[in-house]
Amino acid sequence: MSNTIESHLIETRVFKPSDGFAQRALIPSLDQYRELYQQSIQDPDGFWSKQATELLLWRKKWDTVLKWEAPFAQWFVGGKLNVSENCLDRHLNGPRRNKAAIIWEGEPGEVRTLTYQQLHREVCKFANVLKRNRVQKGDRIIIYMPMCPEAAIAMLACARIGAVHSVVFGGFSSEAIKDRLNDSQAKLVITADGGYRRGAIVPLKKNVDEALKDNTLVERVIVFRRANNEIAITEGRDVWWHREMEYVDPQCEPEALDSEDPLYILYTSGSTGKPKGILHTTGGYLLGVTITSKYIFDLHEDDLYWCSADIGWVTGHSYVVYGPLSNGATTFMYEGAPNWPELDRFWKLIEKYAITVFYTAPTAIRAFIRWGDSYPKGHDLSSLRLLGTVGEPINPEAWIWYHTVIGGGRCPIVDTWWQTETGGIMITPLPGAIPTKPGSATLPFFGVDAAVVDETGKEVPPNVGGKLIIRRPWPSMLRTIWGDEARYEKQYWSDFPGYYFTGDGARRDEDGYFWIVGRIDDVLNVAGHRLGTSEIESALVSHPSVAEAAVVGRPDELKGQAVVAFVTLKQGTTALPELRDQLRQHVATMIGAIARPDDVRFAEALPKTRSGKIMRRLLKEIAAGGKVTGDTTTLEDLNVLAALRGSDE
Ligand code: PRX
Predict the structure, then answer these.
(1) Across-strand partners of 507?
(2) Which secondary-structure segment (H or E) carries 125?
(3) How many alpha carbons lie under 13 Å from residue 506 in its C-beta half-sphere?
(4) What pLDDT is recorded for position 412?
(5) DSSP designation for 343
(6) Nearest to residue 132, comparing CAs of 253, 247, 224?
(7) Can you state the angle between helices 283-296 and 44-55, rounded to 10 degrees?
(8) CA 138, CA 473: separation in Å to the nearest integer?
(9) Which residue minimizes the CA distance to atom 15 of ligand 1?
């Protein structure tokens, strides 16, 4: 049995950046990318030192660029800076002062614009509110907010005074808040009365109240009034945001923080049990998100940039707030759901605000495809010049749809591979320089020494699958798992000592392009062949009737694992029995008989986490016998499971 992951789905289409795009791009040619990449690998200290000087404002210059005592890294040792000063104050001395920093639309339709000057004032005031409520440098603060400017204000205010924020996604339950409160030992919570989602009000404050039962550490809850829903107030503990803001001064000096002072903890689910608190620090993280935002989104002064991620995910931290604001860009925020009040809300927003750069997730793109072309086609999307994706492998067919229907065939697509742990984008096209291939995240970003290796850590030849590792530290890397160094070491650095193991499987093609096949745990072993589930899913999605597919293994006496595919169909398509055979044949034709699903099940919807990742673990249990025993607390919609169990055969 081979130890590598076989890759059978070969995609041959190549899209070069158009001359027009390249001419205006910050990095306009493949040669220039290669030259900078070489520099970043040959002389990392020199490269990062130059970038840190050019891209950031320091209170005190560092003494040492990198101190690496594997697996613990310190970047810009001895340097002092402040993230909020970099994102705000330094833009106030020139024409950006009155430029929009944030343009926001609420789900019900209200619009707010905050210029850099206005945002700076709000952040300073709120930083003073935190101080007034006895928050000190190093204290942990939980932020549980809807997608509104105050969420960003709260984050930046923490950064201003050196408090460590931990944002909890507004779609999570009180249980999730409780876990994070306990693990981080937070003393203050920032929340809102409620937030809007698909026309309903999410009772955020109520969830916080639940989570705080039996909590003895939290002294204060600051409540922003967003939805005007009725809430309970605990006297002596809860205070209103707007009231607190009346008492404070609009000046607040940014704290000169150590480059390695913690900026935030963000919890992400591990394969087992307890969520991991990923710790990011100040200087290296800010440099990482600043440089990636600038060159990957090719930010120009007149761009209106929209990353549709929620602030509760790392994408919201790095590419809604810190990266764009550090670059002085205008970041667009939308509060609600893409299908409210109609299925065209996103396209309406792009048309209305003339958004130029749009960054979203493959799961969203597949939903758009399912809803039908008429929704985007009913809007003028000609302002768009660049598109991006993140979160999972994008199926080539979905890529082509995004390129054609949303991008009008003219916008490059940056398929960006990275993780909560990496802090910033690691493998990605640079839109004016690197030709793209649908489904590939292409080449490593500056300073990223990525490789695909076998079990022994040896690099595999082109087009052979293996494990994706990073062979040297990078500035925005996680520093540890909060309070658990042993887990940090074991989880990321023990499979290949000295190297960071991403947990993902990948292959490189003959051009050195990376094709990520997804989490190693998503790999099937069928009759001795290791197959990435995402490849079979891509083959299914390339069939004209299929909207979305999730493939899992079922224990099989003969083959080790049998391939079970859960499929949702495009609107207007009926689940005829013939279709099942057609789809099995289609996969056999696209990939090979080895990948032919043993079982195709039609479903109305697939079980997903709140961040849109398909919960294969649950599907596996259903495929194996129908019972779901594992934890379902991160499942977005429990009804989906019931329907799946009841459906079909
Ligand atoms: O498996 C990879 C997948 O998402 C994982 C990281 O998830 P998370 O920490 O939640 O961060 C998501 C946002 C950065 C990765 O290990 N992934 C992310 N981007 C891609 C991807 N898989 C393929 N292609 C991508 N562009």
Answers:
(1) 515
(2) helix 116-132
(3) 30
(4) 98
(5) T
(6) 247
(7) 80
(8) 25
(9) 419
> Which residues, 6+ apart, have CB-to-CB distance to 73 below 8 Å?
66, 67, 284, 473, 477, 479
Exposed/middle/buried for residue 289 (C-beta within 10 Å: 0-12, 13-18, 19+): buried
d(CA 104, CA 353) in angstroms, rounded, equals 10
Taking Cα atoms as reference points, which of 182, 55, 83 lies closest to residue 482? Answer: 182
Residue nearest to atom 11 of ligand 1 (CA): 419
CATH numbers and ranges of domains, the chain: 85-98+115-255 (3.40.50.980), 524-648 (3.30.300.30)
What does DSSP say about strands 480-481 and 276-281: parallel, antiparallel, or unpaired? antiparallel
Residue bearing the CA closest to ligand 1, atom 5:
419
The reported pTM is: 0.87
Residues with beta carbon inside 6 Å of ligand 1?
268, 314-315, 390-393, 415-420, 441, 502-504, 516, 518-519
Protein residue closest via CA to atom 7 of ligand 1: 419
Q: What are phi and psi of 84, to 5 degrees?
A: -70, -35
Mean pLDDT by 10 residues, the chain (649 residues): 57 92 98 98 98 98 98 98 98 97 98 98 98 98 98 98 96 86 97 96 96 96 98 98 98 98 89 76 98 98 97 96 98 96 98 98 90 97 98 91 98 97 98 97 98 96 95 98 96 94 94 90 71 84 93 82 91 89 90 86 85 82 73 61 53
Task: Give the tokens for residue 341.
Answer: 């009040």
Q: Which of 399, 439, 447 is nearest to 422 (CA)?
A: 447
Rounded (5°) CA angle 531-537-543? 130
Quote the ligand 1 centre to 10 CA distance (angstroms).
Answer: 21
Q: Which runs of consecutive H residues, i.e. helices, occur in 481-576? A: 485-493, 533-541
Q: Please, which residues have CB within 8 angstroms of residue 309's CB and are 6 or more apart in sequence?
A: 315, 316, 319, 320, 359, 360, 361, 390
Element (H, E) at 532: strand 529-532
DSSP assignment of 4-67, as one string? S-B--------BPPPHHHHHHSSS--HHHHHHHHHHHHHSHHHHHHHHHHHH---SB--SEEEE
Q: Distance between CA atoms of 433 and 231, rounded to whole angstroms?
A: 52
